[in-house]
Design a protein that fits this description.
With about 210 residues, the chain is mainly α. The protein is globular. The longest helix is centred in the middle third of the chain and has 26 residues.
Length: about 210
């Protein structure tokens, strides 16, 4: 939220004319970032920036983060939750970039895509899936109206992203990074069913 407000107040330059500093292009990634290891930090920072043309991008992501993240954090513990969330963003970024290169190869001599991928959606969907793994029978209200189990909501989200990916693969134009979402969901499933944890990443000294 802080980075969104700073971006909106001081760097709201959605134009691509190259005449002014574009904060989303600086901290977001494009598929070609894979070929530039010195820029791989963008696979983390993209998750902290959102579309400046619509407030709904960050509102939706942060609402989902708040609703599902609280209970997942309570189950995991704060430190492990932070590691899980940040790694899910990184995994989503890398896999999103790889699938972007595969699904939309750049012909020789052509200009690569300059539209950056930004948003916390990959990490947020990972939390939704983890919530469903931990509390599958928890009843939720979609949009405050439709009551469904947590596992059904997670399945619905993943199913919509699968359909979106197929649409994109068929040549449809979309600004949504469906593969980043699916990578986050897949990471969460692997984490849960593989009984993973990232305590080994702790820099705290042993007692």
């Amino acid at each position: 939220v802080v980075t969104f407000l700073i971006s909106m107040l001081f760097f709201d330059n959605g134009s691509s004319d190259g005449e002014s500093f574009n904060i989303l292009k600086t901290f977001g990634f494009v598929p070609q970032t894979l070929h530039e290891p010195w820029m791989w930090w963008q696979f983390l920072t993209y998750g902290f920036f959102h579309d400046l043309k619509s407030v709904w991008h960050i509102v939706f992501n942060m609402a989902m983060l708040y609703v599902f993240g609280r209970m997942v954090e309570a189950r995991m513990g704060g430190t492990e939750f932070l590691r899980f969330y940040l790694i899910s963003i990184i995994v989503g970024g890398f896999i999103g970039a790889m699938t972007g290169l595969i699904m939309n190869p750049v012909p020789a001599g052509a200009e690569p895509s300059s539209v950056p991928t930004v948003g916390a959606s990959g990490g947020v969907l990972a939390l939704v899936v983890m919530f469903a793994c931990y509390f599958p029978q928890q009843e939720l209200f979609l949009w405050g109206i439709v009551k469904m189990k947590a596992w059904a909501l997670a399945a619905l989200c993943v199913g919509m992203d699968l359909l979106g990916s197929l649409y994109s693969l068929a040549g449809g134009e979309t600004s949504t990074a469906f593969t980043v979402h699916l990578a986050g969901a897949g990471f969460a499933l692997a984490y849960h069913y593989g009984h993973w944890n990232f305590r080994w990443l702790s820099f705290e000294s042993a007692p």
